[in-house]
Write a structure and sequence with these properties.
The protein has helices at residues 2-14, 17-36, 46-63; strands spanning 103-106, 115-119. It is mainly alpha-helical. It has one domain (2-93). It has a two-stranded antiparallel ribbon with strand order 1-2. α1 packs antiparallel against α2 and α2 (17-36) packs antiparallel against α3.
Length: 120
């Protein structure tokens, strides 16, 4: 997902789809690999999270003008959710006896990065 967030930042700065295509395609490839990969049992059903992320990245790429992004060589189009738009995604998981949950909301319409709220 780091590649996706890098692509979004570059898009905001340059508005040039060709400048971010490599980041977007690599993010999609990595996510598709995660969908079909073997995971240890504690990550049961992780494919649900990956599917949301994958569709989010593909939809963003299509939104900025990139074509043929769905990884058909790894996944059937059955898993594709066209035009998925999300303002934010919260994915939580824990498998230890103690954990800290931190939720920060950042407004996308503000110029710069300003934390609006934080919950511990």
């Amino acid at each position: 997902m780091a590649l996706y967030f890098l692509a979004r930042r570059e898009w905001r700065e340059k508005h040039d789809a060709s400048a971010i295509e490599g980041f977007v395609r690599e993010a999609i490839s990595n996510l598709a690999e995660g969908m079909v990969g073997n995971w240890v049992s504690r990550f049961d059903e992780i494919e649900w999270i990956i599917q949301i992320w994958l569709n989010w990245v593909v939809s963003f790429g299509e939104h900025v003008g990139l074509k043929d992004l769905w990884p058909s060589n790894k996944l059937e189009r059955f898993f594709w959710i066209p035009n998925l738009t999300l303002d934010f995604v919260v994915s939580m998981g824990w498998d230890t006896g103690s954990f800290v949950c931190r939720l920060s909301l950042v407004s996308s319409w503000l110029v710069g990065r300003r934390r609006l709220g934080s919950q511990h």
